[in-house]
Amino acid sequence: MSSIWSCIKVPAAALWRDSRGLAATEFAMIVPLMLLMLFGTIDVSSGVAVDRKVTLVARTLSDLTSQSKAVGDADLDNFFLASYGIMWPYPSTPVQATISELYIDPASSVARVQWSKGSAPRGAGSTIGVPPGLIGRDSSGNILPNQYLIFSEVSYLYRPIVGYVMAKAGVTLSDTAYTRPRQSTCVFYGSETACPKTGT
User: Residue 70's CB: how many other CB atoms inside 10 A?
Assistant: First the structure.
């Protein structure tokens, strides 16, 4: 029995002292975690970059429109194209954008759509919530008349490159922007020659 134990003891001790292959074993255990962290970082950082670009698209779209006294379909198409260019190097195909002009009713502070163009245009006269800070008031707290806002809405379906951390189907990123007309009381659309108050 002792001879059997001595025969087993020597190889067992040698095996315990043998560290060959240890690094390969540790590497095999760590690689999946490292790959998960790598691809997760790529997906999340790309998502943050796309989200920032979506915000820039919304601001640019409302800014370009607010600098005009009047716009037509060709003008708005150019504004959309210029705004979509901001998405480079990411594809602009998933971008959904809408530009609208809002009239703020001084009696009720309700913002109503004057006109709307884009991927999902809003109906004329429909209401949209506006941050209270954007509604001008006089020293007595009364809402000032003839207030218009250019309102842009942008959404983007971001699909991660790998999808280890984020949903493979994608995440919808969106933002909005409000801008006051700069050259006139409102921005005329088409053949409009005045600033009509729709839905009041």
Answer: 15
Residue 185 tokens, joined: 């009381």
Angle between helices 73-84 and 22-66 (to 10 degrees): 160
User: In Å, what is the CA distance from 106 to each residue of 110, 123, 172?
Assistant: 8, 21, 35
- Please name which of 146, 154, 157, 173 lies closest in space to residue 63, comparing C-alpha atoms: 154
- Model pLDDT, residue 200: 47
Q: Is residue 48 part of a domain?
A: yes
Q: Which residues of the chain have pLDDT under 70?
A: 1-24, 27, 35-36, 38-40, 162-168, 191-200
C-alpha distance from residue 122 to each of 94, 126, 161, 176, 192 (Å): 20, 7, 33, 14, 18
Residue 146: HSE in the Cβ half-sphere, 13 Å Cα cutoff: 7
Range of the domain at 84: 25-189
Q: Which pLDDT score, from 0 to 100, does residue 198 have? A: 53
As for how many domains the chain has, the answer is: 1
Q: What is the rounded distance in angstroms from the CA atom of residue 104 to the CA atom of residue 197?
A: 9
Cβ pair 193, 79 in contact under 8 A:
no
To which residue do tokens 């970059």 refer? 49
Instruction: Judge if the upstream peptide bond of residue 89 is cis by omega within 30 degrees of 0.
Output: yes
Position 13 in a domain = no
User: pLDDT (tens digit, 9 = 90+) per residue, 23-40?
Assistant: 667 767 777 777 667 666
Structure letter (DSSP) for residue 143: B
